[in-house]
Amino acid sequence: MADRFSGEDDFFRSSEIPVKAKIENFAAEPSVLTHAREVATELGAVAISAGVGNLLRTLVRAVSAAHVIDVGTGVGVSAGWLSLGLTDAGTITSIDLESEYQQTAKELLQDLELAPPRLRLLSGRANQVLPKLTDAGYDFMFVDINQFDAPALLADAARLLTVGGLLVVNGALAGSDSAAPELVSLISESDEFAAALVPLGQGLVVATKL
């Protein structure tokens, strides 16, 4: 018997939609985060899927991340998932241009006991806020916004992350109206990161700081 999966495996012969559903629904989503995603829809904000959130939680736990940057707070869905993988004394610094969304996030995340000093909400554009953060002070960085200066953001990520830290970018397969694909391209060409593309949500790139 072969010791590896073959191309004839039932899972891989399934149609695209069932496969995606299996991946996205692999882990149960906490009810508070399901509610937060519903609130995001009501407010016209875009939130990550449960499948993306579960991957974030797993990666944060895998590297025992203590200090995380969340670029794109929204109503707190990504911060909530990230917090589930944090060490007990871990912190999340979350950045968003929309302070109104951050206020909603602050309220929703209380049910996960995610509040100051574990949660720091910074209002402003990522390219203006990131340069103010501490060099090599973070183990994990998640980027989930559309518009930014991609070269500057990558330079900030390289400066802010510890060696072995992870940079995860959502929207790798997004359209031309997003800067995420440009950032992904720069990551793939960078000598400072080793990266892989993950087909979840709008496409994720997971990169390790070398």
From TrEMBL:
One of its GO terms (biological process) is methylation. Keywords: Methyltransferase, S-adenosyl-L-methionine, Transferase. One of its GO terms (molecular function) is O-methyltransferase activity. PANTHER family: PUTATIVE (AFU_ORTHOLOGUE AFUA_6G01830)-RELATED (PTHR43167). This is Unannotated protein. It comes from freshwater metagenome. The lineage of its organism: unclassified sequences, metagenomes, ecological metagenomes.
